[in-house]
Amino acid sequence: MPVYSISHVENVRVCVVMVGLPARGKSLISQKIVRYLSWLSIKSKCFNVGNYRRQIATMPIEVDAKFFDPNNEEGLKYRQQAIDLAIDDMMRWFSDEQGVVGILDATNSTRARRETILKLCRENYIEPMFLESFCDDQDLVLQNILDVKTTSPDYVSKPQDYAMKDFLQRIEYYNQIYEPMDAVTDSELTFIKLVNVNSQIILNRIESYLESRIVYYVMNLHIKPRCIWLSRHGESEFNVTGQIGGDSNLSTRGWRYAKKLPELVLKSLGPDAQHTNLTVWTSTLKRTQQTASFLPYKKKLQWKALDELDAGECDGMTYEEIEQKFPEDFKARDDDKYEYRYRGGESYRDIVIRLEPIIMELERQENILIITHQAVLRCLYAYFMNVPQHESPWMSIPLHTLIKLEPRAYSTLVSRIKADIPAVSTYKEKGTSQLGESVEGMSSKSRDLISASAES
Ligand SMILES: *[C@@H]1O[C@H](CO)[C@@H](O)[C@H](O)[C@H]1NC(C)=O
Ligand SMILES: *[C@@H]1O[C@H](CO)[C@@H](O)[C@H](O)[C@H]1NC(C)=O
Ligand SMILES: *[C@@H]1O[C@H](CO)[C@@H](O)[C@H](O)[C@H]1NC(C)=O
Ligand SMILES: *[C@@H]1O[C@H](CO)[C@@H](O)[C@H](O)[C@H]1NC(C)=O
């Protein structure tokens, strides 16, 4: 049984309506909210009006800045068609696919337009929540245009300086009719207004629990470039004997990895190594702290939330022993590894719940190195890489490998550095108690990780 599904608790549906001029990071925020909520098992989806516009195949006119001139009737007609398509799709998704949080990623620059969507939501018992990204810091806007807009599908075959100029003109057209959200005029509406990312945040009439989760999440977002490094602890004595759980010391090879880790981190930092102070997070278990013990960074934090999945009564057993002693449990876990909870222990879903504060803190922080355990790493990785829940428990995260994640506007870049120190495989395939790797039946994201480990 799911223990954590807001939709079941409240039976609430929310339509987040994005508001703001182009190049204010609306799409980025929308996608992050969807990734975060999906990771928490809350069904959510983004409906991007720009994508619908690009799909109107019959559109005979060129899409340059003039298309967005509020006096361009033909442009208006197609833009209206795109928004209608997006809204129809979203409403169908709410009703036919039991969607919980739909995000309408459009500009919604005038009050009259916001009124239409408000009415539609109310008629369908969906809570409308407006999320405005307001930004008058020109440097931020220009940076955003450079980061994402000049690579937008609208400008694929165009030179960059043309794209920049045309895009600024497009913003100007929107600006002519733009009416920002306002605490007085819009006092009846539920809205969040982010001013210059999060230097100021205005909240109005946030009512449901689900809305307040979204608020809390967007309040913690920042856009400073940074990286996150992930590593499992070095091979432990229990890994050598094939036992799970416990609080054992590192094996000899595990200690070798710990000694090598500072070098791997420097290599991964590259030319920035001298100027970067990482913060190191470990669990409260010995094997992660021992793995971090040679790192030169002063700031080290222990988190109970990063401890390994609690195997309850199976703690200290090998998979073979579990298969013999609790055959039904062994099978139940293979059948649904995400939901299966060890007797007196935890499931993957339980880990996701206890990791939520870690994710919030990670969003707030800059460069962090996390040394933790296989199951916990799988869940963290799934958040950043958007790996589906039924796959994440089966991903193989190799021992003795440093993983670097670089969050970018629309994706996260991954790179790995292997320590070249042998370790036992601790990967257990479905349907067996033997350890070893396989690559079938996975999405490309989780497959990547496995093949990277299998090549050693
Ligand atoms: C949201 O904004 C778009 C683009 O400005 C507009 O065409 C649309 O009508 C707005 N949504 C609604 C339903 O008012
Ligand atoms: C590696 O060993 C630790 C105990 O030291 C254990 O918690 C962990 O589950 C092991 N990994 C696997 C997947 O066997
Ligand atoms: C782990 O190492 C410490 C210090 O070397 C030792 O005192 C302790 O007994 C070891 N623990 C286990 C479980 O082997
Ligand atoms: C890193 O932190 C140490 C100790 O806190 C400090 O002495 C050092 O100057 C910092 N280095 C940089 C590049 O910030």
From TrEMBL:
6-phosphofructo-2-kinase domain mapped to chain residues: 6-225
SUPFAM superfamilies per UniProt: P-loop containing nucleoside triphosphate hydrolases, Phosphoglycerate mutase-like
Organism, scientific name: Spathaspora passalidarum (strain NRRL Y-27907 / 11-Y1)
CDD domains on file: HP_PGM_like
Family per record: In the C-terminal section; belongs to the phosphoglycerate mutase family.
Broadest EC class assigned to this enzyme: hydrolase
UniProt entry keywords in alphabetical sequence: ATP-binding, Hydrolase, Nucleotide-binding
Signal sequence residues: none
InterPro entries: 6Pfruct_kin (IPR003094), 6Phosfructo_kin (IPR013079), His_Pase_superF_clade-1 (IPR013078), His_PPase_superfam (IPR029033), P-loop_NTPase (IPR027417), PG/BPGM_mutase_AS (IPR001345)
UniProt entry tagged with the keyword Hydrolase: yes
Region spans: Disordered: 429-456
Bias-annotated ranges (Polar residues): 432-444
GO biological process, one term: fructose 2,6-bisphosphate metabolic process
Stated name of the protein: fructose-2,6-bisphosphate 2-phosphatase
Domain of life: Eukaryota
E.C. numbers: 3.1.3.46
GO molecular function, one term: fructose-2,6-bisphosphate 2-phosphatase activity
Pfam families, sorted: 6PF2K, His_Phos_1
One GO cellular component term noted in the UniProt record for this chain: cytosol
